[in-house]
Amino acid sequence: MMLMMMTTYTSVVNVVVLVLLCLQCVSVASLEFQVGGPKGWVVPPSNDTNIYNNWASHNRFQLGDTLRFRYKKDSVMEVGLEDYKQCNSTHPTFFSNIGNTEFKFRHPGTFYFISGATGHCKKGQKMAIRVMVPDDHDHDKSHGYHLAASPFAGVPGITMILLFLHFVLDYVAFASYM
Ligand SMILES: *[C@@H]1O[C@H](CO)[C@@H](O)[C@H](O)[C@H]1NC(C)=O
Ligand SMILES: *[C@@H]1O[C@H](CO)[C@@H](O)[C@H](O)[C@H]1NC(C)=O
């Protein structure tokens, strides 16, 4: 009897641990990327004007992910393709100059960002980002800002919980025969 109670107790602890793991794997699904890495959102050096698109090409962006722009005396705008090409900052669809801007991808597609500061976009402070619908299999390859890879990524949390409950119930049934 004592043994059975202990077994049940262990099982309950296991379930709690697994539920917590699953909550974690669900929250890992979206990532935050710091644009340009530690340097942030600045005018690129004149010998390396494509830094932002190079940076973007090393990452995979998905619906629900967030960009963080850090800058001083500058701004960030989301614009259309033509305005991106011509560095036209007269009618952005998004504008921020608070120095620490968060931008969340709310739909898939290509997003175009430019600096709103005079001359900066022409010097290469611009970036095009393609955002895909979630595909958890490849998401772990991204160089996310606080990426935590999970062995359960891609398995819906509820499936994991059901699978584990099934396992625990089998185990309890087996243990009570002992
Ligand atoms: C750009 O110039 C700097 C210093 O002049 C150098 O350290 C850096 O490697 C150069 N970058 C590229 C991409 O050529
Ligand atoms: C920017 O776009 C607006 C509206 O499309 C246009 O009137 C203006 O001439 C453009 N400015 C530049 C510098 O291309």
Automatic annotation (TrEMBL):
Belongs to the early nodulin-like (ENODL) family. PANTHER family: BLUE COPPER PROTEIN, EARLY NODULIN-LIKE PROTEIN 21. It comes from Stylosanthes scabra. Residues 1-30 form the signal peptide. The lineage of its organism: Eukaryota, Viridiplantae, Streptophyta, Embryophyta, Tracheophyta. Residues 31-133 form the Phytocyanin domain. Gene3D superfamilies: Cupredoxins - blue copper proteins. This is Phytocyanin domain-containing protein. Keywords: Cell membrane, Disulfide bond, Glycoprotein, GPI-anchor, Lipoprotein, Membrane, Signal, Transmembrane, Transmembrane helix. The chain crosses the membrane at residues 152-174. It is found in: Cell membrane.
